[in-house]
Amino acid sequence: MSEDPEWRKQYELLLNYISEENHRFWSRFNISILLNGGLIVAFSSLLSFVEKSSLGTFGLFAITILGVIFSYLWYRMTRFANSWSKYQHEKLKNIEKNITENLRIMPFKEKVIEGSVTKTALWHPKIFIIFWCVLLAVIIFLHLKLSTV
User: Fold this and answer.
1) SS3 53
2) Contact 7/77 with Cβ under 8 angstroms?
């Protein structure tokens, strides 16, 4: 392929976009970890109020439901980022098919690399979803058990 300025511009824009998207992905990842960590701290803080008032129990319900919602949204964002990342890498590979080996940035393969960072990161929100759902089930069970006593 000749040194076409339009080709080079498209290639550089795509590389910059992929780099920025990776940065945004890790920013979203860190924010989500921080939100879930904050909810866990709030949950732990409210545990001491459960015996004193029903407001503490309501707070625990609210925190666990927020945890499930945030974790689910995090999971959906990560899935979308993963599919978008695959699409952008495919576009980059299509451009690179016509480039000589010494200019190639991405390793040339027929399909997108399996086990990408975003695919691996899908386990974090899944673990938090399971954590919050189990915690919600425990709270409901204990609330029902304590209310019948």
Assistant:
1) coil
2) no
